[in-house]
Write a sequence for this structure.
């Protein structure tokens, strides 16, 4: 996955996501909004395309028309320090767009396992001011 920051709008970070897929599928892409709440030892962020359809029109030049458009209903992440350990929660409700053959659905689920780390790395880059008391969050 490749994330490109597109600016801010009404307190949300706006970004383009490109998901490279195996040759039998079309690549996926979308324009989303990410909202952040942070404290000294916790970060919560939510990403969604819902209610932000105008952003896809506004940033149409970033979208590849040959790629399927994903529908990200919600991606919720909460990462915090609890008793010196990292507690991470991820809730996701998405449709990748286009058709997905049955065997590929299992492979996609396997890829999602690394998704939390990819999102955490993206958030760290976007919000470089985030400082955690736990050094091993990322």
């Amino acid at each position: 996955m490749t994330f490109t920051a597109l600016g801010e709008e009404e307190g949300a970070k706006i970004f383009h996501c490109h998901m490279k897929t195996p040759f039998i599928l079309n690549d996926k892409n979308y324009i989303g909004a990410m909202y952040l709440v942070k404290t000294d030892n916790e970060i919560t962020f939510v990403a969604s395309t819902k209610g932000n359809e105008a952003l896809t029109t506004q940033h149409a030049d970033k979208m590849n028309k040959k790629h399927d458009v994903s529908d990200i209903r919600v991606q919720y992440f909460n990462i915090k320090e609890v008793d010196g350990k990292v507690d991470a929660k991820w809730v996701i409700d998405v449709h990748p767009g286009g058709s997905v053959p049955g065997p590929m659905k299992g492979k996609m689920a396997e890829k999602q396992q690394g998704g939390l780390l990819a999102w955490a790395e993206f958030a760290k880059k976007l919000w470089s001011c985030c400082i955690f008391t736990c050094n091993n969050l990322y």
Observations:
- Strands lie at 2-9, 12-19, 28-38, 42-48, 68-69, 71-82, 85-95.
- The chain is about 20% helix and 45% strand.
